[in-house]
Amino acid sequence: MLSCLSAVVASILVHQIRFLCTANTLGTKPFPGFENLPRSIWHELSSPFTEVYEVESFVTETGGTPEPRPFFEDPESNITVQLGTQVYMHCRVQNLQNTLKVSWVRRRGEELHLLTIGLDTYASDSRFSLAFEKPNDWRLLLRSATERDAGLYECQVSAHPPLIRTVHLAVSVPKVEIVDEHGATAADKFYKAGSTIELKCVVSNIPQPTGYVTWRHGSRTLNYDTTRGGISVKTDMGAAGAVSRLYIANANKKDSGNYSCALANVAAATMVSVHVLNGENPAAMQHGGTSAPRATFIFTVVISLSSLLR
């Protein structure tokens, strides 16, 4: 209170002295006794107050410790997710001032597609949303990832210059194949009547599969078929996929048809056509029934020409 009163008194005194100085300059006579004061006294009385005020104003406007610049807790990252799953892309920001905004964008070449600003979502695809997690994680949530979602995502902070953290997203698409005993895929498989049908289904590009492989004959599920009998399925789950084998004992004509296998609802089904033959030659049938005689004729011609050239 005393300091405020002193400042008021000093201000009044300075104004009075300036008034007297002005009156003296104009030739008018101020209060008795003031006309004989030297001019230097005005400077000595007024300068200290003016200088202190200007210094205090500068310190108020530009002084003090500046606010720390925001920064990302995590470096750039590469994320691989399974097809159809949801993924969180993290963006932890420290020292974020109230005047700054965190945004998510997707980069496709030179194009930028805005996804979120602050807590608001602007993506046209409803699978994207912001899932903020206290205290400072501006997570981008993507539900049911597809192969087209793979690419580059950027978390941006509206500082000067802007801060950018990138996330590279990869979507793993499972691969399902029905292969033969040599590991080669085939559209058709031939078996003699009375033999055992053996089909092998290989599921790859799916780390730690949690579902089960389903076999079908046409629209009929074979894993739980008890009316036919003689059907068994053995499935081995691995770190990067699964291998399932279907066995059908004592095959007959009714077992012919399309067989497919799939891994739950994650991997698309693949199919093979099975033919159960009663005495026919599978090789001849598979090649249209004329390949064997034609091959024999060509072999005979080659032998004949070789003997003539000797």
From TrEMBL:
Signal peptide (UniProt feature, chain positions): 1-23
Domain Ig-like: 70-172, 174-273
Record SUPFAM superfamilies: Immunoglobulin
Keyword annotations from UniProtKB, A to Z: Signal
Example GO BP: synapse organization
Pfam families the UniProt entry points to: Ig_3, V-set
GO cellular component, one term: neuron projection membrane
Protein name listed in UniProt: Ig-like domain-containing protein
Natural source organism: Lasius platythorax
Lineage: Eukaryota, Metazoa, Ecdysozoa, Arthropoda, Hexapoda
